[in-house]
User: Which sequence fits this backbone?
């Protein structure tokens, strides 16, 4: 009886062992399946992350190209701004010089106008003096003509008297 009892015990132990072993095997299998699922999910996540990294790298490259383009545009605009400021400064200087030249010309015009007024005044005085001189000349010419006429009359009278004297002497 020992045998059957022992056998029963052994069978019971074997059944418990198999059951434990079966549980352990199922547990290992469940762990393996869970690990496989986790590994698969990790691989999917890794691929997704690699894809995200690639997309981010492309986006970063695009952003860098855009930044470089913006920097070029900014430099170009800064150069245009500097050129415009230089042009404005040149135009301001030219305007100041033109204003100074205009002021100098206005002063010169004022001086010339004053000189013109003086010359006109002198011209008017000279014209009056010329007219007065013309008047005196005309009077002198008239007086000269009167005197020439008187001299001619006296010369004629003298000749006549000389002729009369000669005629009287001849007689």
Assistant:
């Amino acid at each position: 009886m020992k045998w059957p009892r022992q056998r029963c015990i052994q069978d019971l132990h074997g059944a418990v062992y198999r059951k434990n072993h079966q549980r352990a095997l199922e547990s290992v299998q469940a762990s393996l399946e869970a690990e496989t699922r986790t590994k698969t999910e990790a691989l999917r996540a890794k691929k997704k992350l690699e894809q995200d990294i690639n997309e981010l790298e492309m986006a970063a490259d695009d952003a860098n190209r855009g930044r470089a383009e913006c920097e070029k545009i900014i430099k170009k605009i800064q150069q245009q701004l500097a050129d415009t400021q230089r042009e404005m400064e040149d135009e301001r200087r030219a305007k100041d010089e033109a204003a100074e030249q205009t002021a100098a010309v206005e002063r010169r015009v004022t001086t010339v106008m004053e000189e013109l007024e003086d010359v006109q005044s002198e011209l008017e005085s000279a014209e009056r003096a010329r007219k007065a001189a013309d008047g005196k000349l005309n009077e002198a010419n008239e007086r000269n003509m009167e005197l020439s006429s008187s001299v001619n009359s006296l010369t004629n009278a003298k000749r006549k008297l000389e002729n009369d004297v000669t005629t009287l002497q001849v007689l």
